[in-house]
Amino acid sequence: MIIVLKPNTAKAEIETISTLIKEKNLEPLVFEGIERTVIHVLGNIRDDTLIDAWQSRNSVEKVLRILKPYKLASNEHKSKKTVISVGDVTIGNGGFTVIAGPCAVENKAQVAEAARLLRGMGLRIMRASAFKPRTSPYAFQGLGQEGLEILKEVRDEFGIFVETEVMNVRDVELVAEYADIVRIGARNMANFDLLKEAGNISKPVILKRGMAATIKEFIMAAEYILYNGNQNVILCERGIRTFETAYRNTLDIAAVDILKRETHLPVIVDPSHSAGNRDLVPALSKAAIAVGADGLLVEMHPDPEKALSDGPQSLYPRQLEQLLVELRQIGAVVGKTL
Ligand code: PEP
Ligand code: MN
User: Fold this and answer.
1) Choice from 175, 183, 206, 251 to test ligand 1 binding pocket (greatest atom count within 8 A of CB)
2) What is the pLDDT of residues 256-283, one digit of tens each?
3) What is the 3-state secondary structure (H, E, C) of 190-244?
4) The domain 2-64: what is its CATH number?
């Protein structure tokens, strides 16, 4: 249930309503917007006279029942789209934000070269993971905190924002200190302790869809972060496991449209981990902008043949440059600027 208050409702009245809600063993969650305040009422409301009582208060504009299991992510909670700000860059503001960079932080020179190339292409946010979730324990595991230090140095030297993964509850605060955007990867989408912890930070969180998660499970995972206090969540469709073996994962392009309609959160697409092969990345990226995504999370390596992870799916710098030209052309048609 949502109680929508009239504009400029006094704080004392908000407190009174909250107290009334608590007296009924329900939980009030107050969201103070710029224009108006809404109070979510969590819990099982069996008594319709309660709704009538709230509705009849002078300060209440309307009372809405939210039937969706995702109360806070739902567009019923907030009809205005969430816009994420990273410095002066916005995600979800009707444009198309390309976040690009290598799969992993390998060394300072590699990350610096990636940043230089991206800045040259006019891109403002670089991805690169210091902590790597690898299928094999024998594969490169990432540089950990040393990688975060490299990211910070390169961030400051090149004036580029950085996006990086957090894998573990105990590292959330640390990663949030270094990164402009914190990422929760597909393998951790249902790590509920990690989601709760991500709710306690103020940095934006990119939440990737689990490779076997339904759209509803994906939104419920975002709900954990929102419920725990962080409203800056970006959803990322990165492909799901299907029977198809011609590529790495099946990019669920329909999910992008559904997520955009069901929620108020920005939705971006990762064409790289969907494709598993760089030749497919441009087509998937163009599908993403055409279907209405708010941006991309795409892998580009200065020298993909030498990459320590995901080289085959990493774009060559000139390929990314060409892709940006084509995305701008499609953007002009679908009303998205990059
Ligand atoms: C990544 O983006 O670095 C990554 C590991 O992707 P995913 O979690 O989608 O597999
Ligand atoms: Mn990767």
Assistant:
1) 183
2) 999 999 999 999 999 999 999 999 999 9
3) CCHHHHHHHCCCCCCEEEECCCCCCHHHHHHHHHHHHHCCCCCEEEEECCECCCC
4) 3.30.70.1140
